[in-house]
DNA sequence: ATAGGGTTAG
């Protein structure tokens, strides 16, 4: 009996006494005759139950494993007799004898989660080696401990096990490493994930396309397609061909970055290499089209997929329902919804939120509530997406009564709102939701913080930020942008500076992939941050500083966008430097950014102030030609400009045009 | 590996 060896090893430090032996065998006897219940109140437990007795009990072969586990769990729940490391390991040895791996994992999980029990692997192994010479046991144990640490997000400890295994030349399986790769990926620690992957490649672990796909997908989701592609190419030179999953991830990466044509090209490449695209390949591209609002195209794409013999699944149904919903065809969306149910595909939170959102945009409250009730009845409990759609709808429509009814559904609150103000309503809603245990995310908080800032209720904003942190929610770049903007507008630059220091201290990141890759890699500030500051400096007349920031953006790989260029163009126009303004406009267009209403307004205003009416009017017609619909503001600029420069006839003509356009 | 909502700047 292997556990006996453990006892012998342990007895070197613990001198066995007859009394211990006796207590142990009494407990064993008691446990064998009945359940644990009577023992709980027995004097046996209260008196001499120490570490040594516990081990004697747990390792006694006469005691069934079932009773062992009962006894162990009883001790765990008993603060006075918490089992120690030796007890855990003794139990593990017994469990290994009958190959109860799930239970071993449970015990290891106990060790990992208890600071008093946690110990380096080497200790655990040398402890266990006293009761077995089975090398497979040690390997299995390390493997399981590694997984337990990875699953618990204890990456340092997991790496420690890996180090030990590598050093001790214990065989490491790919499946085991994949657990850590997956855990790192889901925690958004892609850099660590990437370097661990490279370690595995360097170590003697036999890896397959599966591990490669995990890393590739992680990189692609962050928009780092090129890096993922590079990794795939390197792996091919090592004899590992990528699989369909990896190719699908690359396609997804391109879609995320809005590079639809590249995505479709990648599909062709994978086909050329002999891989057959699957439903996921098609859905990924369809959703890429949806991201670009090319719904008609996405619809045709999915129809073509069905024509090729693929059948709809939950995801493709959801995408298609979303397409119709976004195009405003709720009838067709609803028809598909029925079709999927008839076909045995059960709608989920995504389906319902898509439809509820669609109906909310149509203002169809009845249909919204009907769906909301149906999902609850059908056992789909509404998640944050659904609630947020409802919250937004309440805020937008200022429908307090309905909001109340929805709150009741969510959970009981207590406070009755007494005002119709959108902000108050949203704030109350937030309080109710939190009280009801509904967790809100950073987006929702940011919305409210911004609302309070705009009302100049900065203390409230700060209070909400405190709430976020207390709930362990990540304060992100957008949160800071909102606050920075608020202080900039008030001209409190000292406070802004302090905010930047705070960002640094709290390691605040931009968590978006939508802007530039650099930002996706975790840069603190984004384009909007720069825009806020540049605009603030322009308004305060710190032009040199604004120009410096504009140049700094490029250096930091933060891409200037339409707003950035417009702010700069507007500044040059206001300072009378039309040459520079037009130069920037050329740069902007070369970047593929098309000027919009704001940009044209600045340029036209600039030309007028120099009396260049013809240029101004030429810009105006150019703007209209490009499909930019003029608004009241721009008409006012032009009409005022013309009349000021002695062209009342032209002004009148434009006035008529404006009225005609509504 | 794929699907749904909402945030900041001119």
Automatic annotation (TrEMBL):
It comes from the Eukaryota. One of its GO terms (cellular component) is mitochondrion. The keyword Repeat applies. The keyword Repeat applies. Keywords: Repeat. Gene3D superfamilies: Tetratricopeptide repeat domain (1.25.40.10). InterPro entries: Mito_RNA_Proc_CCM1, PPR_rpt, TPR-like_helical_dom_sf. Coiled coil: none annotated. PPR repeats lie at residues 208-242, 243-277, 278-312, 313-347, 348-382, 383-417, 441-475, 476-510, 526-560, 561-595, 596-630, 631-662. GO terms for biological process: mitochondrion organization; RNA processing. One of its GO terms (molecular function) is mRNA binding. Belongs to the PPR family. P subfamily. This is Pentatricopeptide repeat-containing protein.
